[in-house]
Amino acid sequence: MIIGFAALIGVLYLMKIRSYDMYEKEPLLTLLAVAIFGGITAIAISLFLYDFVEVRHNFLDAVFKIGLIEEASKLLALMFVYLFIRKDFNEIVDGIIYITAISLGFAVIENVFYALKDDQAILTIVMRSLTAVIGHIAFSGYMGAAFIIHVKIHRNYSGLLLALALSALAHGLYDGVLFHERLNFLFIFVFIVLVMGQLWMLKILLGFSAFREELTDASFTETGETVSLHCPHCALSEKPKAVQFWNIRAAICDFCGHLLVHNQNIRHLTTYFRPALNARSFTKQLTRKNRSEFLDSNQKILFDAKSMTLCAKPAELGTWLAGTNIADRERILGLPLVGFILKHLGMRYLMPLRV
Model pTM? Predict the structure, then answer.
């Protein structure tokens, strides 16, 4: 029952992880196999290494021993499973997706070990699933990103070493603030920063994906419905035809052919085509100004504050989104410290790539 419950939680997490892989989802069965066999491999390597290292539950050992051993084990496990998943390992975010699956498998197995030693086994699994499982997922993405760049883009040995150091540090900070009673109050802060940092890096890599579809006149398909949307461009449309692409619902003006994207779907549009941008903040900023404005220098992309509708020709909107996505990537990689770290993880080798 304990193993089954822990495995069920692991599968739910795996499905959530897969949902972030927007452009070319990895096969669920492949991810499940990687989580199982990669997790077992990482656990086995860790146990082997621990036989040669004396570990104490203090801050320094958390960083320089526990973090280093367990994260190095996950990286070695990724190198091992890569031999069997080369065909599927073909998108820039796959490094993070697959090492996250390994980390999940590692954490689930670890949860079972802890639960079997505890009188309140189910409670232990639940509590660790809310902290330790998410933590393990948040530690290792740096290595996944550096590894796929290494095997698919450019030899990246320094990036791999930096990624291992960052993952070990993240893991060590997590354990260290738990081991040190005077630092326990920092746990929630450290936990949130690690999780958000990992999610942000995934979004940055999504911005480099070659599998993202370009927005063109043919991208949207008609749903057979009509919607009540005002066209800011011609002011003639009454009930334009509803269209959809991915999770983005929009409409096409019957008179001028402009694409009309209303408030909530602007966020979906931004999430897909400008993943590194905070879509929620972007849409809030648009509505907060309370005035209509062109979002591009060519005055082709219009946001109408009164109807909260984005209006543009689909192809012109696609060109603008592609250009701003490139600008988003370059802006982030140009940041003083964060940009330096991301570049030296290997993202400098991605800069020549274009949508």
Answer: 0.92
